[in-house]
Design a protein that fits this description.
Blueprint lengths: L1 E2 L17 H4 L9 H12 L4 E2 L22 E2 L2 E2 L8 H28 L6 E7 L2 E2 L2 E2 L4 E4 L7 H8 L7 E3 L12 H5 L7 E7 L6 H18 L17
Parallel strand pairs: 1-2, 5-10, 8-9
Antiparallel strand pairs: 3-4, 6-7, 8-10
Helix pairs in contact: 2-6, 4-6
Length: about 240
């Protein structure tokens, strides 16, 4: 289990990239509430848990390094002054100090489990802002996926059984848009069953919300993960491209 956008720290040398506290408290800097939820859920499932400590504005650990949004010059129409005019050396330093260690650690954990005969299921946790571009998003939770339906389809079905939940299928983003890096690198490329979960931020912004949603996801995942087919490596067509 991992959270690519859990933290909102900044290296001392970078200050706050020219942003004020108001911007740093918003979703552009981090996935609000996901670190607390992730810790609780990983503990209840007795699962390893990886999370980023640095803000996605320093470098986005869920983007390919050649993606223009890897180090965003603007996020949700908010300019990021400290990311403008960077040299190749500046970009390389952030990659070496933040992006690569995070993904090496995650890859080592996964490969170690495969080598020991314990084929893992990969769960990526994110949170999303309730309103984007003036649109009030109705979903409480979304499941993002691409080709491998083993995990997402039963997961959505089971989530829909929970009282009063609005569940999004590839909402509010899509697992098929090609932007995400981590699921492709650590799950699709290896043929591991996986899902990316997006939880609405207003539902998990405080401890009580995180506790509640950790309980919901614990119940749901315990039921879904009972399927032996999830613990097989199955490469999908084009997954390693």
């Amino acid at each position: 289990m991992f959270c690519d956008h859990a933290g909102r720290a900044f290296p001392r040398a970078l200050g706050t990239l020219g942003l004020g506290q108001r911007e740093l408290d918003q979703h552009i800097a981090w996935d609000i509430g996901i670190a607390g939820l992730g810790r609780r859920l990983a503990h209840s499932l007795d699962a390893p848990f990886f999370m980023t400590g640095y803000s996605r504005l320093v470098i986005d650990c869920n983007r390919h390094l050649d993606d223009p949004t890897s180090i965003a010059q603007e996020s949700d129409r908010v300019p990021v002054p400290g990311n403008r005019g960077l040299s190749a050396a500046d970009r390389h330093r952030r990659q070496e100090e933040i992006f690569l260690p995070y993904h090496r650690g995650l890859a080592e954990e996964i490969q170690g489990r495969i080598a020991s005969g314990r084929t893992p299921v990969i769960i990526s946790l994110h949170s999303f802002t309730p309103v984007m571009n003036g649109f009030q998003r109705p979903w409480h939770v979304g499941v993002l996926w691409n080709n491998d339906a083993r995990m997402p389809v039963p997961l959505m079905r089971r989530l829909a059984e929970e009282p009063d939940l609005v569940v999004g299928d590839n909402e509010p983003y899509s697992g098929r848009d090609g932007h995400g890096y981590s699921i492709k690198a650590h799950a699709e490329a290896l043929g591991l069953a996986h899902a990316l979960l997006e939880i609405r931020q207003d539902l998990i912004a405080d401890d009580s919300g995180q506790e509640k949603w950790a309980g919901i996801l614990h119940r749901v995942l315990k039921d879904v993960l009972d399927n032996p087919a999830l613990h097989e490596m199955r490469l999908q067509s084009g997954a390693a491209s």
